[in-house]
Amino acid sequence: MKHYQKIIEDIYVEVKNTDDSGKVANYIPELGTISPDNFGINITTIDKQSYGIGDYEKKFSIQSISKILTLTLAYQLEREKLWERVDVEPSGNPFNSLLQLEADFGKPRNPFINAGAIVICDVLISHLKNPKEDFIDFCREISNNPNLNYDDKIAKSEKSTGFRNIALCNFIKSFGNIKNDVDVVLDFYFYTCSIAMSCKELSTIFLFLADDNFITHKNNKILTESQAKRINAILLTCGFYDESGEFAFRVGLPGKSGVGGGIVAIHPDEYCITVWSPKLNTNGNSYKGMLFLEKFTTKTASSIF
Ligand code: GLN
């Protein structure tokens, strides 16, 4: 049994006092209002022991971390057919890049860049009767947490300035890889990004990727073992955009970041850990989040390698 509480407390103090060269995202105006000093960590083990420090119970905008949840539901619904619409290769480009899509004929490189997540949202809209309600219900079931919700203010803020995503969605539609109305797809995408969760809630909701025996309180298995393994593989290779190699190199866990400053990382068969610190490095990943996790997997000798 590792002494996780003491370990995260020690690293928390060390990293909190480190100079942070990052910047809070403000291309979504509402995100720019968040205090850069927020800093929280929570780890939940597969036997449901939970350890937290700092602002670990404060909700924040999970942004691209939601791409794991949209992918999970789409994978459950479409199974392997899903990969006809989106690939599983690292992009080596920023999260909101339009560059590669032209050469790839509108098939996004992976589901964790914006282009891929927008296609995944399109897939979900084709399947779900009430996409927003059905999707949040799915998140509530996985986490056994009825308090999860979208943040209307954040979603509307992104909608008013989401020009790149609007361009991406239209561009992909020109190749025929968006089947529904672009406004409907984008509205759903912006809402999925706006979901508010705390570090504690995040490290609980992703236990289904750490625990092979995971079932919900309604007795549903979310993914097969093989599907969960595959999502972890894509997280490891694509979860941090053009910094995925660096994250594997320094931290050594499958994980995902969001421009709200959150990072989740999964240790299959052991735990899920979340760090929140809003200042981002130039690749759009939380500066202190990566630093914390690097120290954490080093100290606990728990990279997957
Ligand atoms: N909603 C954000 C966007 O589309 C999500 C990006 C992110 O978290 N990396 O720009």
Question: How would you concisely characterize the structure shown here?
Answer:
This protein is 44% helix and 11% strand. The chain has 305 residues and is α+β, with helices and mostly antiparallel strands. The protein has two domains: 4-59 and 199-216 and 239-298, Beta-lactamase, CATH 3.40.710; 64-193, DD-peptidase/beta-lactamase superfamily (Beta-lactamase, 3-Layer(aba) Sandwich).
Can you tell me about this structure?
This protein has helices at residues 4-16, 66-78, 99-103, 114-127, 131-143, 152-161, 163-174, 182-194, 199-205, 225-238, 244-250, 287-299; strands spanning 23-24, 40-45, 50-54, 60-61, 196-197, 255-257, 262-267, 271-276, 279-280. It is of the alpha+beta class and 305 residues long. It starts with a helix and ends in a 6-residue tail after the last helix. A hairpin with a 4-residue loop joins strand 2 and strand 3. The structure holds glutamine. The site of glutamine (GLN) has 11 residues, from loops.
- Beta percentage is 5-15%
CATH architectural name of the largest domain: 3-Layer(aba) Sandwich
Order of strands across the main sheet: 3-2-8-7-6
- Enumerate the spans where pLDDT stays under 50 for 5 or more consecutive residues: none
Distance between the termini: 20 Å
Give the biggest sheet. 5 strands, antiparallel
Bound small molecules, deduplicated: glutamine
